[in-house]
Amino acid sequence: MMSNERVLFVDHTGQIGGAELILLDVVTSRQNASAFLFETGPLSAALAARGLKLIISQHGSGLSRFRRDSSVLSALPLAGRLAAIVVEIARAAWEHDFVYANSQKAFVLAALANVLVRRPLIWHLHDIISSAHFGAAQRRMQVLLANMCAMRVIVPSEAAAAAFVDAGGRRGLVEVVPNGIDLKSERTLRSELRQRFGLPAGPLVGVFSRLAPWKGQHVLLEALARLPDVGCIIVGDALFGEQDYAARLRTMTAELGLVDRVHFLGHRNDVPSLMQAVDVMVHPSIDPEPFGRTLVEAMLSGVPVIATDAGAAPDILERGRAGTLIPSGDPRALAAAIASVLTTPEQVATQIDYAAQRARAEYSLGRMLDTIGAVITKVRLGAVA
Ligand code: UDP
Ligand code: GLC
How do residues 156-169 score in pLDDT, each as one tens digit? Predict the structure, then answer.
């Protein structure tokens, strides 16, 4: 996807979540690209390391922790700052051929900037637009701006596409581009990894998502209370202001008598290796997952997956052929699924072989980059509806 268009990538956060990991892959193959961020953080450092010119807002610090379901009214005191960011984006857009917004907040402000400086605007929408994550006014504004200003809306799954259309977004704008993941870690023996990481022997499950109520780590804790012999690692931290939830998880662990069995490892940069140390990867989101990179990472790592049957998970896990699907927010069903995976190794071996093949075939990084490159070219050639 090497190309000379001058693209301005816009993101609201300086943190690196799944959406930003995708952004880091998308920018890698582009020359003449810049990134406009609302704040500095690990993301700005990673983008600079990839050779992007960085433009950091003078007014955006802390906005990424502003809740996205906040009312328009509570956003009013921020209106001045938001307007200033709009002007900053417009100024930056002036020197670029395209604007590529990688988050909801980035898109809304980039769309408003588009009124001042018109540039083709692409929205890479990594969220499921629904009442679980966005207030009614926000949803209306997002789709209205998308219908008016976006040349294309890229989403990672049919579930995210359907939610955008249900909220009033134009179907013709949508390009479904499944996330692509390139795992470089080698396969290592589970026992060796347990030793390396100081993890106990015996049945061990893991969850590898940032800590946030909708990611559902609490459901796993409740399931573990029913499985006295099973240990667990909780990998990830609260990246976007969910510290209360992180504290609640620790309190729950104590209240449920799980302190000896549950290990909180915080945010880690060695997830692919850590994943191979567990017997089962659990993805217990209680709201539909727009994609879920960790599902594919586990499939590529040869680790059995148990995930909530909602959002993109049933597609990625091919309706249960490449992993186990469970109802949302149901600790009893999760406990039963964990027990079943731990006690049926032959069945699981067939499933993980199939899952690894499927992940390599359907969710390769190369395919994602080629498809996004083609979307950008299509927009450049004006061959869009
Ligand atoms: N991740 C990580 N360190 C952690 C926890 C998670 O590097 O401690 C990575 C994980 O491997 C995955 C990404 O963060 O690649 C999370 O992406 P996903 O799509 O699963 O969820 P998101 O957080 O974007 O909603
Ligand atoms: C978002 C979604 C996650 C998706 C990621 C990359 O953070 O929550 O499901 O995998 O973006 O698209």
Answer: 999 999 999 999 99
Q: How far is the CA of 21 from the centre of ligand 2 (A)?
A: 9
Q: What is the pTM of this model?
A: 0.94
Q: Does domain 190-362 have CATH number 1.10.10.10?
A: no
Q: What is the pLDDT of residue 66?
A: 60
- Token match 């799980």: residue? 258
Phi first, then psi, for residue 181 (nearest 5°) are: -135, 135
Residue with the smallest CA separation from ligand 1 atom 7 is: 269
CA-CA-CA-CA torsion sign (177, 353, 289, 86): negative
| Ligand 1 atom nearest 267 alpha carbon | 8
Residue 250 has pLDDT above 60, yes or no: yes
The atom number, within ligand 1, closest to the CA of 266 reads 8
Tell me what the mean pLDDT of segment 118-143 comes to.
94
User: Average model confidence (pLDDT) for the chain?
Assistant: 94
Domain 7-180+364-384 bears CATH identifier 3.40.50.2000: yes
Question: At residue 292, what are phi and psi to the nearest 5 degrees?
Answer: 100, 80
Confirm whether 7-180+364-384 and 190-362 share one CATH topology: yes
Residue 15: alpha-carbon gap to chain centroid:
12
